Every structure is written in C-alpha cells, then in structure tokens.
TrEMBL record:
<dbReference type="InterPro" id="IPR018170">
    <property type="entry name" value="Aldo/ket_reductase_CS"/>
</dbReference>
<comment type="similarity">
    <text>Belongs to the aldo/keto reductase family.</text>
</comment>
<keyword id="KW-0560">Oxidoreductase</keyword>
<feature type="domain" description="NADP-dependent oxidoreductase">
    <location>
        <begin position="23"/>
        <end position="264"/>
    </location>
</feature>
<dbReference type="InterPro" id="IPR036812">
    <property type="entry name" value="NAD(P)_OxRdtase_dom_sf"/>
</dbReference>
<feature type="binding site">
    <location>
        <position position="112"/>
    </location>
    <ligand>
        <name>substrate</name>
    </ligand>
</feature>
<dbReference type="InterPro" id="IPR023210">
    <property type="entry name" value="NADP_OxRdtase_dom"/>
</dbReference>
<feature type="active site" description="Proton donor">
    <location>
        <position position="51"/>
    </location>
</feature>
<feature type="site" description="Lowers pKa of active site Tyr">
    <location>
        <position position="79"/>
    </location>
</feature>
<dbReference type="InterPro" id="IPR020471">
    <property type="entry name" value="AKR"/>
</dbReference>
<protein>
    <submittedName>
        <fullName>Oxidoreductase</fullName>
    </submittedName>
</protein>
<keyword id="KW-0521">NADP</keyword>
<dbReference type="Pfam" id="PF00248">
    <property type="entry name" value="Aldo_ket_red"/>
</dbReference>
<dbReference type="GO" id="GO:0016616">
    <property type="term" value="F:oxidoreductase activity, acting on the CH-OH group of donors, NAD or NADP as acceptor"/>
</dbReference>
Amino acid sequence: MQRSPKHTLNNGVDIDQLGYGVYKVPAQECADLVSTALDTGYRTVDTAALYGNEEGVGQAIRNAVDGGTARAELFVTSKVWNTEHGYDATLAAFDASMERLGLDVLDMFLIHWPCPERELFIPTYKALETLYGEGRVRAIGVSNFEPEHLEQLLDSCEVVPAVNQIELHPWLTQTRLRALHAELGIATQAWSPLARGTILSDPVLVELAGTHGRTVAQIVLRWHVQSGHLVIPKASSGVRMAQNLHVFDFALSPEQMSIIDGLDRERRSGSNPKDVN
Ligand SMILES: NC(=O)C1=CN([C@@H]2O[C@H](COP(=O)(O)OP(=O)(O)OC[C@H]3O[C@@H](n4cnc5c(N)ncnc54)[C@H](OP(=O)(O)O)[C@@H]3O)[C@@H](O)[C@H]2O)C=CC1
Ligand SMILES: O=C1CO[C@H](CO)[C@@H](O)[C@@H]1O
C-alpha cells in the first residue's frame, strides 16, 4: 500500500501531501468511497459544507477509528461557504459542519472563497482564529485568495493561514501566487489538480506518460508533488484512487519538470476568485 509523505504546516501540524477530495461525491456514496480511500492508504480528506457530504466523510473517519486507526493519523478539512461569512455566522457554520461530521476536533477549516464584494472575509477569518484559539480546529487557512486578499488579511489578523487552497495544475501554474505563499510561509494546496480530468489528453503529458510507463494522471500528480504542492485529487473508483496515490516511487527529471511548467496557459476549470461573491 502506498502512503503519502507528510508535510508540516507553518504551525507544526502534519498533513499528507497527497489527500483525497470529495467534491461531487454523492452524499449516499461518500462514506463508502472515503472508506475505500482510507483502505487504499489515504489519510487526508478534503470536504466542504458546499459539497453536502460531510456526514459521509465523518462516518468513514469514525469507522476507521473504531477499526483501530489512530484519529491523529487522519486529517479532515472542511470550509465555510460564502453565504455564511461574518464572525457569528461563521462560528455557527463551524458548529453545523462539526455536527454533520460528528467529530470532536476538526483538522483544518478554510474560508472557501474571499467574496471580496461582501467585505466580510476579515471577520470571517477572526472567527477561524477564535476556533483555533479554543483548540476546536488544529489549523486554519483560506482558499481562492488572491495576493490582495492575503495582504488585507495579514494586515488585520494574527494567525498566518496554514494553506491557501487554489486552482492549480499544469495549465494554470499560478507562479505569482505560489511565490507569495513561499515568502509568507503559507502552503499551496492544489484544487482540481487534474483540471477536472480535462488535462489528461494533453499530448505533451501523454508522451511523458509513455516515457515513464505511467498514466497521465500520475505524471501530473508527480509534477505537483515535486513542485512542493499539497494536492487533493478526486476519483470515483478504488483503482483510480490507488493509481493517484502511487506517485512516490518515480521522479521527473528537471528538464521534464520545465516542460510541464511550460504548459501554463492560464486556463481555469473553475471560477476566477474575483467573480465569486
Ligand atoms: N476550494 C475550492 O474552491 C475547490 C476545492 N476543490 C477540491 O479539490 C478536489 C479535487 O478537485 P476536482 O474538481 O474534484 O478535480 P480533479 O482535478 O481532482 O479531477 C477529478 C476528475 O478527474 C478524474 N480522475 C481522477 N483520477 C483519475 C485517473 N487516475 N484517471 C482518469 N481520470 C481520473 C475523476 O473521474 P472519476 O471521479 O470519474 O474517477 C474526475 O472526473 C475536490 O474534490 C475538492 O475537494 C475542488 C474545486 C474547488
Ligand atoms: O469547492 C468547490 C467545488 O467546485 C465548485 C464549482 O467549480 C466551486 O464553486 C467550489 O469552490
């Protein structure tokens, strides 16, 4: 069984570099699929209130703990949705997520989108700081924050976000944002790391896959890993889950990494954070 190496976040908490994302996993299938992911070797799961499947994630985590897996080995992320911004609303949203998850402590809680026109991400983040201070969540962070949002946040808040979870893949390499993260000590976590599957027919990646005798998904995930990103691919079968985790026993050469870096075309598969409010 493959296992992801751990990455230590800026507050000393460990997360798997490669975890499992559950956007679009139907609620009724979620517990079984997350259990399959855990059996495959995943230890980190990314969900959100928006995904409507926190109950299933929590069920699978509790089943694993009942079966002998240490809770400390497992890592669950959830996120506060855009309609719940503001200090009090965010505290209530956290309670609701925890109720659905059925967990005592959450590993990481993120602001899902900055929603700049709402002008509420600062009080929203202050609620996350309160939860962190109370020990109800082990790490806090943000998602879809652009440089200007991070700068505003750091001007007004105490706790440097542990991660910024952003859309990131070889067609959208986010060079400027990643450089800022490195400067600030914020981990870059890649969402839609496979560009929702659309990148898997890229001819350059197909050729590299042939060279290594690997699948295109494995080449892309290996590029993420070697670039130092945290990454959370979603897959709907145990075979694909295992394939996606099986990327720690080969390496891309520096030349191959540069070739993949060169595929950037600033192509998003999801929304631009400036348009989400
Ligand atoms: N913070 C945010 O705003 C966002 C966060 N996310 C998070 O990131 C996670 C991953 O992103 P997501 O948008 O799901 O997209 P991904 O880039 O992870 O791609 C998932 C798609 O790729 C397919 N796929 C996965 N593995 C393979 C493989 N080995 N071979 C062929 N096809 C494969 C899946 O198919 P199939 O399912 O049929 O196996 C699915 O259609 C989400 O689940 C969520 O947790 C996602 C979007 C936004
Ligand atoms: O996490 C998410 C999953 O994908 C959705 C559609 O692109 C996003 O809006 C959301 O942020």
